[in-house]
Amino acid sequence: MNGVLLYAAVPAAALACALFAGTLRFMRAHMRRRSFRVMAVYFLALWAVMGLYCGLLIRAPGSEPSVIHWMPFEGYRLEDWFGGGGFVMNIAAFAPLGLLLSHLGMKRGRVCALGLTCSLCLEAAQLMTGRGYCDSADVLANTLGAAIGAVLAGKGDRR
Fold first, then answer.
1. With b meaning 16 or more CB within 10 Å and e meaning fewer, what string describes 119-138?
2. What are the sequence ranges of the domains in the chain?
3. What angle do CA 84, 130, 132 make, to 5 degrees?
4. Which three-class secondary structure string do you get for 86-128?
5. What contacts 59, CB < 8 A, 6 or more positions away?
6. pTM of the entire structure?
7. Are strands 68-69 and 134-135 parallel, antiparallel or unpaired?
8. pLDDT digits over 99-116, tens only?
């Protein structure tokens, strides 16, 4: 990955999350409750399909070894933090889950638990199919992303 993309990934991900959070707040304030819930469920379904595609289907079966990387960040290089499948990108990928679930009324603890569960399922599917690395750092990043999304939703003090 070239240097420009490497260092542009973090601000771009942060900007995308901030825009998404602002859009959800605007929609929640200006839409009827039922319309907002329908739109949020639609976004959740879209997030799930895109997550499945990016996490599994984009890779060839058996392209990665079927082993579990238990030690987080072992052998990480700079591009592993900010690159296409890096730690920061995993946080950005799961932040919309936290945002959407929080705006639908779910408490932060449950949002984090669901983020952890979704991440474990994705990593288990990667392990079973050989489509990506099964890495504990990914589980940490994904759960952290869901938690950050829940905090960005503004539900932190009230729930």
1. beebbeebbebbbbbbbebb
2. 3-152
3. 10
4. CHHHHHHHHHHHHHHHHHCCCCHHHHHHHHHHHHHHHHHHHHH
5. 131, 132
6. 0.76
7. parallel
8. 889 888 899 999 999 999
